[in-house]
Amino acid sequence: MSVFLWILGLLLFANGLLVACIMDIKEQMVYRFLWLISGVGAVLLLGGRVYADGMQTEWMMELLFFIALQQLWFKRFYGRADCHAYCVCAVAMNAFGLVLIDYVMHMLITFVGLAVVQFLRRNVGCGGRLKKPVALIPYITIAFWVWVDFRGGKWYI
């Protein structure tokens, strides 16, 4: 795979997530076409892994399982846009060589970060519910980059 396609994929993925964060913060809504843009970028990144390593059934099945779980079950717990964000991030993580446990750790880091920030802001009411709704996609995005950097051993952030 050419370097140009890899850079294009990274730009589409990262910028799609950035715009989704801004929309989620400002409007509490993200347009579906953003997930198409981010998804195309993530698939371009994944294409680089497939080109380098070949199609491996194990990690592809884990990815499909996670995406199905997000779209069919987790959508009941948070918004559909948040499910799409987790799916796009999982495809990109897979492109970087990460697997199912990493997708789960990404989700855990997201919710720990959300809980800490909302407790400090005193936005948590009775029963653990938030008093005022909060945009989750910025937490998903930050957790993605933190976990990818941690697993890669780079710590650029």
How would you summarize the topology of this molecule?
Elements: H1 3-27, H2 32-53, H3 57-72, H4 80-95, H5 100-120, H6 137-152
Helix pairs in contact: 1-2, 2-4, 3-4, 4-5, 4-6, 5-6
Please, could you describe this protein's structure?
It is a single chain. The chain is mainly alpha-helical and 157 residues long. The chain has helices at 3-27, 32-53, 57-72, 80-95, 100-120, 137-152. The longest helix is centred in the first third of the chain and has 25 residues, at 3-27. It is globular and about 50 Å long. The mean pLDDT is 86.
Q: What integer value in Å does the Rg equal?
A: 16 Å
How many strands, what sense, and barrel or not for the largest sheet? none
Which quaternary structure do these chains form?
Answer: single chain
Question: Helix count, per DSSP?
Answer: 6
What does the overall shape look like?
globular
Low-confidence blocks of residues: none
Fraction in beta strands: under 5%
Distance between the termini: 27 Å
Helix fraction bin: over 70%
Give the overall pLDDT as a whole number. Answer: 86
Secondary structure tally: strands: 0
Could you say which structural class the secondary elements and strand pairing correspond to? mainly alpha
| Topology order in helix (H) and strand (E) letters | HHHHHH
